Gfo/Idh/MocA family oxidoreductase
Amino acid sequence: MATTIRLGVLGAGIMGRRVAAAAVGTGRFEVVAVADADRVRAESLAGEYGASAHGGVADLCAVPDLDAVYVGLPHALHLEACAAAAAAGVHVLVDKPLCTTAAEADRIGALAAASDRVWMVGFSYRYRAEWQRAQQIIAGGELGLPYFVLDTAIEAYVSTPGWYWDAAAGGGTIQLQSHHSFDRIAWLIDSDATGVSCRIVRPPGSAEVSAQISATYRSGLVAGISLSFGRTYDAVPRTLFVLQAERGMLEIDEDRTLRVTTADGVLTESHADDDWLGHELGAFAGAVDGDGFPFPGIAAGRAALQCALAAERAATSDSWMVPDA
Ligand SMILES: NC(=O)c1ccc[n+]([C@@H]2O[C@H](COP(=O)([O-])OP(=O)(O)OC[C@H]3O[C@@H](n4cnc5c(N)ncnc54)[C@H](O)[C@@H]3O)[C@@H](O)[C@H]2O)c1
């Protein structure tokens, strides 16, 4: 019988709270420690699970008998958290993005390579039922070769944390959102990006709030990735993913409806009630158990990062960029 995984949660913010609940919901994890620089947050979340509360990464990683950590911190802190987790010899689920610079990715890659633990990156879309169905349909070949993608996410929340708009903390819509887009496109079409161009909107004193990205893929596909945030009002998020292939079109909308159109007709599936974060945590537990199922690791995190960095370079240099390896 699989043993309970003793989990430490680094960051008691939006995702830390959600991941703690999802982890416990799988029946495979016990949340034993929570760390947050905001002591009130750390104690509040820890109190819900009878866990210990800590002010920082190092304190949490010193907790005895810890098996795994979830890293849900501002992006510029992901390397420090990964280094502490590696020193503690625990399994790591680091939320996207893996980190925000190539040098950081090199360091995390070296830590992971020297470790015999699981290093998973939180590319949640791979665990959403509608995206998994899309991946199966595309891999099954019934649509033929995909040649075009439109990937759009337009959101507006007053409550977004301040660091989301602080470039020094790793904020901005390229680092916040494009990693998801780059990862899910590469995963869906099983091909990697060969070129990226990008235009951004960056208000004074802020990281960019909008990015209009074009990307080309080795398979021949071209993608348009449109990402935008509003910060002074709340709105229903608008997301739309459309993939066109030789023999059909596949769409996923913000209601989590998958629609596949071919010459034979239209297939429509709703996955609105699917517990994607539970599936992600379940996959992490499975990887810790050594179940052999593939999961997004450091290489996937690095690939998405290199595309995001190419987008940042393209935005400042006014030219197409080739993502580094
Ligand atoms: N997978 C998804 O769908 C998804 C969705 C949203 C966010 N995310 C990712 O989750 C991660 C966390 O984002 P969030 O939205 O929860 O942010 P958040 O701001 O809500 O949470 C981050 C927490 O870290 C704490 N913190 C800041 N500095 C710290 C330090 N030095 N030591 C300890 N704690 C510190 C903050 O007080 C805050 O509570 C990011 O990587 C983000 O991109 C993923």
Observations:
- The chain has a mean pLDDT of 97.
- The first strand starts at residue 5 and ends at 10.
- Residues 11-16, 35-38, 41, 56-57, 72-75, 77, 95-96, 122, 124, 161, 163, 176 surround nicotinamide-adenine-dinucleotide (CB under 6 Å).
